[in-house]
Amino acid sequence: MSDKKGFVTGVNGNMVNVSFTGSVIKNEVGYIHVGRDRLKGEVIRINGDTASMQIYEMTNGIKVGDEVEFTGELLSVELGPGLLTQVYDGLQNPLPDLAQKCGFFLQKGVYLDPIPNKDWEFTPLVGVGDKVRRSDAVGSVPEGLFKHQIMVPFGLEGEWTVKSIVKKGVYNVRDTVCTIENEKGETRDLTMVFSWPVKRAVKCYKERLRPDETLITKIRCIDTFLPVAKGGTFCVPGPFGAGKTVLQHMEAKNAEVDIVIVAACGERAGEVVEVLKEFPELTDPKTGRSLMERTIIICNTSSMPVAAREASVYTAITMAEYYRQMGLDVLLLADSTSRWAQAMREMSGRLEEIPGEEAFPAYLESYIAAFYERAGKVRLRDGRVSSVTVGGTVSPAGGNFEEPVTQATLKVVGAFHGLSRERSDARKYPAIHPLESWSKYTGIVDMERVNKARSILIRSNEINQMMRVVGEEGTSSGDYIVYQKGELLDAVYLQQNSFDPIDAAVSPERQKYTFDVLYDILMSDFRIDDKREIRSFFNQVRQAFLDWNNTEWNSDAFSAQQKVLEDLYKGKASA
Amino acid sequence: MQKVYTKIESIVGNVVTVRAAGVRNGDLAMVGKSFANVIKLDKDLVSLQVFAGAQGVSTTDPVKFLGREMQVSYSDALLGRVFSGSGVPMDGGPALTENMIDIGGPSVNPARRIVPKNMIRTGIPMIDVFNTLVESQKLPIFSVSGEPYNALLARIAMQAEVDVIILGGMGLKYDDFLFFRDTLEKSGAMSRTIMFIHTASDPTVECTLVPDMSLAVAERFALDGKKVLVLLTDMTNFCDAQKEMAITMEQVPSNRGYPGDLYSCLASRYEKAVDFEGAGSLTILGVTTMPGDDVTHPVPDNTGYITEGQYYLNGGHIEPFGSLSRLKQNVNKDTRSDHRALMDGMIKLYSSYKESLEKKSMGFSMSEWDEKLLKYGALFEARLMDLSVNIPLEEALDLGWKILAECFEPNETGLKSDLIKERWPK
Fold first, then answer.
1. Could you report the per-residue pLDDT of A521-551, keeping only the tens digit for each?
2. B159-173 tens-digit pLDDT
3. Which of residues 19-78 of B touch A (CB under 8 A)?
4. Residues A283 and A397 in one domain
5. Min Cα–Cα distance to chain B from A235, Å
6. Which of A273, A363, B50, B413 is most buried, most CB within 10 Å of its CB?
7. How far apart are CA A85 and CA B203, in angstroms?
8. DSSP characters for A186-211?
9. pTM of the entire structure?
């Protein structure tokens, strides 16, 4: 703690100017004393003896001359056991605890300990005299499903020697469990908790690897056609009502990763409540435990202070990196990055910076790029491989993807799942546009066949466009069959019913299996000439396929329905 | 002791500046005879936004700081009353100064919110049956100017089963204000209504206060266990007032002149909608007129990202397509067993009707099936979509079955067989 002080000289929206003496660090956290409240803020610009701070609270009530206390620390989060299952605001304030203390409303100036004050069963992993470096584990505690490693804080550079370590036993999270010393003779007492500045990427790993392993989401159209990789990045832009949030919730429920962090950034509070009430009820099929046990929720909804919204995505990714350092695969879902960009825009306006496109600041692109670049698959110092995958939704103004945030995001992500209003209006969910979207990662089915299937979809779409002009009569029956094949692929494979207990999550094995059958249908040659007959044939195939999708994997009904389907289409196919 | 400052440094738009010390951001002041609030502090230079507009303000007018923020009185005495955007009575009644509460208070902790579960009955089939309004929902009516959106709001106000109605009027034509007042008085709903009215000729700043005043009072009623419905018309005027003020403050505009914080501005108001566990609830129904019928205009666009669905008012009725109540799933499973299925089935048929209609207009020949659909569409529009229809949900569902039976054979409706057996009119 430093005892640097300053005084308020001006207030403009959520920006406060402070005059100070001595030194002030950029991005340092300070508190403004307003009556008995202390309002948290961050220094974002220094000019002469005036520091401009963005305040994470409503600035009502601040007056010129109010005292400001600088902490000398950058905006940080606390990292330690107990993060999982928590619900935090953008500044890592635990919301349920806050509710107990303050009731229905968020009171300003109340900051609680983010890490629950709890005892944990600590098992040491090093002995006295062992050499350790930052991010090395000195011990572990059991946190729900995981062995939560107690690591050397990421900020301690160089080699350290363990001077003392406690025996296996139960300790409070803030008890000293280990003391280490470096070559210069400096010592550090380690507890189970340490803090890390949110805007600095954690880089304590041996090397970064290429994201080459598919992250299974159990959503057919993603895993097969538009895959995401562990350690990769993807974005989901879409107009309002296209189902961005529902899609993200599906991913949060079904993704095959160890930990999911949901950052609800500037979106509706009601949607967070759905997650809050639903996730504890759902079980993770992999572990049989509640889904909440692998989840952290960061929620800075649209009516909460704007500056904290900007911090919330960084808070989320720092926690993701922390769990990655333990060798785990983490998925971060940010909804929505546009609100984060808007928060930057608001602040930039207050700073009277020269605006870029649509008044977004000129540094928008580099900030978005830097954020997504914190995703990655890495090899840790002990050889384990782990990853942070980042998926962000984008809410483009007017649903127009040509706007700055979407474009800046598209430059840096590895997969683009664009949602379309037409598909959501037609109730075709997930409303990911199969032709406009793309992915640079490898999926679960070999690419050659996927590309062939996609080419049918493209051709089918072209024929459909043509038919609108010339009508069905002017279309050849060969073309009409290709059109129907494309429609079939869309109806039975790309669309997925998230409310059906079986269809909502499809295992990769099943996806591969049904894709084989579908592929066979798409590649078959059907000799039917009459268009009415063609239509009714494909209607039957579609119905049979959909029924098949609704049967339980590898059950008797599954094989029976497969036979029905195969009898149906093989009868019409010519050898 | 209150110090009075008599030297105004500058007057730009509705903003005046004075040199004063010890003033808090957001504080209320009197400039001449009008209220004003502090919007910016720079050393000893204080910028004040004058509610009644700076027209006629003299550089020697007295400026007096009141040492508190904007407040509004809260008590049952508010019921039946009409106030201006700054809380001044507009109905000739006495000013209320008791039990003052702050406006624009903090937001509800998401951890204390609950999943909404109660339907609000309005007696309008297009709402009750097809896009059910749910307690604590925030829902705008997207409308082209000229549509009868105020008539619709007034009807909802009269018929909705709620305890307290708060009407926030922004940029309202004086005629419309009289229409609301007369309609509510005639129907007897006035005794549970409070109005905060800003008419088109009133100062711009008061327009931006209307939602905050309305919602602050509504929130207190909700905390006291009342079911409150807040009607806001028209939120586009509110946004335009925000735009006007931002531009005079020389803020950098982001999209079509609107300030960059338009989304946050709207969100902090709409997000006041809430269901308090163990107390009452606050539901918001707003009107957003779409300039040029353009849903991608910044106001409807930002609104759509915030609210839980929307009603499209088009051609004098609520459009079945495009209208969406995101929360209807929470309640329509418990109303009547056939509600969901009938809702989906009827909309699907109506969509086929639209296709047939298009075919007909293009001169294609009509099949027997097309003719059935055309008959169905006409009945559907006349008996269910017409805004003057006022029947409870159950009756509307029965009527739906009746329309289906008049037009189709049971197996043509695509509805499940067991449901048809149970409900098909004999």
1. 999 999 898 888 998 899 899 989 998 998 9
2. 899 999 999 999 999
3. 21-26, 40-44, 69
4. yes
5. 17
6. B50
7. 50
8. -EEEE-S-EEEETTS----SSEEE--
9. 0.92
Yes or no: say if A248 and A333 are a contact pair by the CB < 8 Å rule: yes
Does residue B400 fall inside a structural domain?
yes
pLDDT tens, A397-414? Answer: 888 899 999 999 999 999
pLDDT band at A213 (very low <50, low <70, confident <90, very high): very high
> How many structural domains does chain A have?
4
B375–chain A nearest CA distance, Å: 24
**What domain range is A569 assigned to?**
447-574
User: Does B245 reside within a domain?
Assistant: no
Domain count, chain B: 3
**Which of A8, A11, A275, A393 would best serve as a mutation to test chain B binding (most B beta carbons within 10 A)?**
A11
A64 vs B contacts (CB less than 8 Å):
21-23, 41, 43-44
Whether B58 and B76 map to the same domain: the answer is no
Contact A276 B23 (CB under 8 A): no
The answer to whether residue B253 is domain-embedded is no
Could you tell me if A507 and A424 lie in one domain?
no
- The answer to the question of residue B243 being in a domain is no
pLDDT in tens, B224-237: 999 999 999 999 99
* Integer Cα distance of A493 and A511 in angstroms: 9
Nearest CA-CA distance, residue A346 and chain B, Å: 6
Helix or strand holding residue A451 (H, E): helix A447-470
CA-angle at A452, arms to A446 and A455, nearest 5°? 140
Q: What's residue A1's pLDDT?
A: 46
One domain, residues A316 and A179:
no
Q: Is B249 on the interface with A (CB under 8 A)?
A: no
CB contact under 8 A, B268 and A61: no
Question: Residue A107: which of B106, B255, B309 has the nearest Cβ?
Answer: B106
